[in-house]
Amino acid sequence: MSAYDVLAIGNAIVDIIARCEDDFLVAHGIHKGAMNLVDAERAELLYSHMGPAIEASGGSASNTAAGLASFGGRAAYFGKVSNDHLGNIFAHDIRAQGVAFDTSPLTGTPPTARSMIFVTPDGERSMNTYLGACVELGPEDVEASKASSAKVTYFEGYLWDPPRAKEAIRMTAKLAHAAGREVSMTLSDPFCVDRYRDEFLELMRSGTVDIVFANEHELKSLYQTADFDTALNAIRADCKLAAVTRSENGSLIVRNSETVEIKAVEIDELVDTTGAGDLYAAGFLFGYTSGKNLETCGKLGSLAAGIVIQQIGPRPQADLRLAAEQAGLL
Amino acid sequence: MSAYDVLAIGNAIVDIIARCEDDFLVAHGIHKGAMNLVDAERAELLYSHMGPAIEASGGSASNTAAGLASFGGRAAYFGKVSNDHLGNIFAHDIRAQGVAFDTSPLTGTPPTARSMIFVTPDGERSMNTYLGACVELGPEDVEASKASSAKVTYFEGYLWDPPRAKEAIRMTAKLAHAAGREVSMTLSDPFCVDRYRDEFLELMRSGTVDIVFANEHELKSLYQTADFDTALNAIRADCKLAAVTRSENGSLIVRNSETVEIKAVEIDELVDTTGAGDLYAAGFLFGYTSGKNLETCGKLGSLAAGIVIQQIGPRPQADLRLAAEQAGLL
Prior knowledge:
2 copies of one chain form a homodimer. By secondary structure, chain A is α/β, with parallel strands linked by helices. Chain A contains 12 helices and 14 strands. Helices cover 39% and strands 22% of the residues of chain A. In chain A, helix 3 packs across helix 10 (276-289) and helix 8 packs across helix 9 (228-238). Chain A is globular, with a radius of gyration of 18 Å. The A-B interface holds A 18-19, 47, 50-57, 66, 84-86, 89, 92-94, 96-97, 311-313, 315, 317 and B 18-19, 47, 50-57, 66, 84-86, 89, 92-94, 96-97, 311-313, 315, 317. Strand 4 of chain A pairs antiparallel with strand 4 (54-57) of chain B.
């Protein structure tokens, strides 16, 4: 029996979100659309130049866990916060969404991670992440019972940035596979792929990872090619199942020789792309762990992504189960 | 010469905002639409039952100061935070909006004030405010140069809840009047009016306050009447100028025998009423301190209120100056 549909593992982050013009990104050397890692000093500097902001719990895999719970799925999460105010906010929000979150917080420093997210007028988000307490996530944080009782374990490629999280991932993957479960990852970010390309490919080719989520840019970065079809055929061979998102061009799901094409949902206004990929994974994994066919999994992913990009902040304020029912997907 | 258009004084609060159903308010004894004062213990309890939330700087008069600055006005603010994380957020956001904010923060406890705001499906907000550091605001926090150099000093009726803020108000009003400036207040909340009715009337009748902002419910509470016209004629006699908001029915501005009627702006969707009155005051005071006629002042107020109720959170993400220009009001 599975106690959880999805166990998500990631960097536990509170987002600080403000709008800015494109000039601001250029002036401050922020790579647009990417996750920029910053140290404490640069975090202070950027905050001092940031406009009025709002705070909201974020973190890629935690957004996915929250999204899955909003669909009605059973989610658990591993991630490290500190016992400070932002850590309390993070823990409150994920638990209030119904996600099992029991990773013990750090006492004292470093503080809970935060990401300063600048949203430009085109709706694109550019992240500046200070990892803080996340650097302390390690194998001692693996709760074996959760690792072996979740249908799918899902982790973010971003976890290769902190030093010991990868050990936690490899341990969790072993426990999961020993219990007959599947393991899934998101490639997270094209620059993250560039930093850890060989290790990500090894995770896939060794069978440590069964299911891969990526966007078009990450996929091309993984295989160092500008040709999308080349990259798509390469990942087809490297993992059991892959879902590749292409923004307004929808997504493609590949499994061996099978290809399923999903249209993007129509939206009224693109407000903030933060969380789009995370919520696609949430919808997909909710469908997948509910036994839906790949087309429905993809449509659930598109639905959730389409909702989150029409609001500020990375976790939908709307009830995703209700939205899925209204869309005729459940 | 005036260094500031508006000096705002209020409870410095960070909002914690979540959606809930009406049943939740009933189950937790929260008075819908009102500002409910809570102690630290009840704040903890309510937070533990609150759904996933977002955090945003709030506080009635501080929202007005931020709105005025967004219009391009010159604003200053007095309000008390603690030197903790929420205090840093509050100070960052108001300064990043261009408001002069130099009140010295408390060291240590009580912590920065927070208000748990529950937004029901009809868009109405119900606030649960823990005053924290705000109880320490007193006459020692009055910066005389700002009090005497702002065209209008604006304060919230809510300041009668903490013990010594009213002393700061009376001192500021004296300095302002001695410099030939005007003093303005918002009645804040019908229950707040009920708590301090006699004192509020004394402020008006003694000439301590020249300009009053109120909504219909607060006005009726002030004069303990169910008849709107009776209340409107009463306030006409009690202060030099009053602006009374009536939600979707617009607003009325009265000055002696003069009455100006302003329509509410049409909106696409009512999302969250938080900040509606605060932003009306921001628009009105921006117009007033720019020398606009009362009709334009009211239209600027309606414009800002209409913008803030179509988003989550109490301070507009949009640039109000741009919005006013597009509406042909500047």
